[in-house]
Amino acid sequence: MSTPRRLKIALIGLGRLGAIRASILAFQQPRIELVAACYTKPGSDEWAAANLPPSVKYYADPEDCMKNSGAEAVLISTVTATHAPLICMGLDLGLHVMCEKPISVDLITTAEVLAKARSNPHLKFLVPFCRRYDDSYRAAKEMVENRSLGEIHAVQTTCIDQQDPTGFFISFSAQSGGIFVDMGVHDIDIGRYYLDVTSGLANPKKQVNRVVAMGQQAVYGELAKYGDCDNGWGMVEFANGKVLTSHLGRTLTNGFESCTRVCGTKAHSVINGNSTINRVESFLNDLAEFSASVLDDKPLTCTPDDAYEAAKIATALQYSFRNGVPVYFDDEGLPILETSKANVV
Ligand SMILES: NC(=O)c1ccc[n+]([C@@H]2O[C@H](COP(=O)([O-])OP(=O)(O)OC[C@H]3O[C@@H](n4cnc5c(N)ncnc54)[C@H](O)[C@@H]3O)[C@@H](O)[C@H]2O)c1
Ligand SMILES: *[C@@H]1O[C@H](CO)[C@@H](O)[C@H](O)[C@H]1NC(C)=O
Ligand SMILES: *[C@@H]1O[C@H](CO)[C@@H](O)[C@H](O)[C@H]1NC(C)=O
Description:
Helix 1 packs across helix 10. The protein folds into two domains: 121 residues, NAD(P)-binding Rossmann-like Domain (Rossmann fold, 3-Layer(aba) Sandwich), CATH 3.40.50.720; 182 residues, 2-Layer Sandwich (Dihydrodipicolinate Reductase, domain 2). The radius of gyration is 20 Å and the shape is globular. The chain is an alpha/beta fold. The site of one 2-acetamido-2-deoxy-beta-D-glucopyranose has 5 residues, from helix 6. It comes from Cephalotrichum gorgonifer.
């Protein structure tokens, strides 16, 4: 019997998430071979030598790694600011690309990257939104699709991280784009996933009518200087009339809470994603899907359009919070932002 073909992947970035990804790529993906890893963070080499197979090659430079490691695909797990240039580099070198969210904190850059991905349809491109790969969210999706909840009219999410006494995310806030962009993008995506936001539209380009957001610096006053908050509330009215509401926070003292309520006319379904087991499970499932999509030419659960639509809504919510105004969307489907204020922090 011939050995089944495995997808040769190079991993760029061995930080907190990158290290989890490396172990999964090396030991828990029967259809993937981790051929190389690239890191710039001090100490990563010791971790890699102790934890990864000896066959993995190491590179300090991402371009060298993508060109010379023999990889057919790349997983980008680096700091957010490097995602867009690394995605473009991978696509230009003819590699299939999977990248952690978000593509960029800047909408124009996001649109440019997605245009490049669309113009290379022979290359697979995946930005996985992890909740779509979690079994409890998938079970709720089945109930939505088989209509056992009736007509879905709203989704309500809560995602509150444990309070971090080191305040790491305060300095991180300067580059993260703010709580709605960094954290809220997952809630926005899962809302879009359940609310059938592309059907029943008078204008197919316009999926959203308006958003409004509010926020507080309840514990971390310093966030104000970055135009950020530690508790934020966002409301999104989709053009099909459906509504998403989200409470995002970073200040829970007794653990971490993540909960999604899918509101249907016959029943509600409440998904409690309060589990690190499910989080790791989603990091296995998205890689399995990515490798199958390349090896068997199968479709992906998250498309470039999903990434772009979620980024537009996240940017609009962050703007709404910063400027204290609702944000409407135009007929091209873009949020109407006064550009002079859009990036003011
Ligand atoms: N659920 C999710 O989807 C999820 C969860 C956590 C993190 N993330 C995303 O994953 C990314 C990584 O997060 P993290 O917590 O592991 O960050 P981290 O800061 O722990 O690690 C970042 C890594 O990037 C590397 N790096 C920095 N600049 C580089 C460059 N120019 N070239 C190559 N490598 C470079 C660093 O050496 C480090 O290994 C972030 O974009 C984050 O938003 C997504
Ligand atoms: C709908 O899907 C759910 C979840 O898989 C299942 O439990 C339920 O029996 C299904 N209902 C119908 C009517 O098919
Ligand atoms: C949520 O997770 C915490 C810590 O892992 C646990 O102590 C708590 O019981 C969980 N809550 C629920 C509702 O599952």
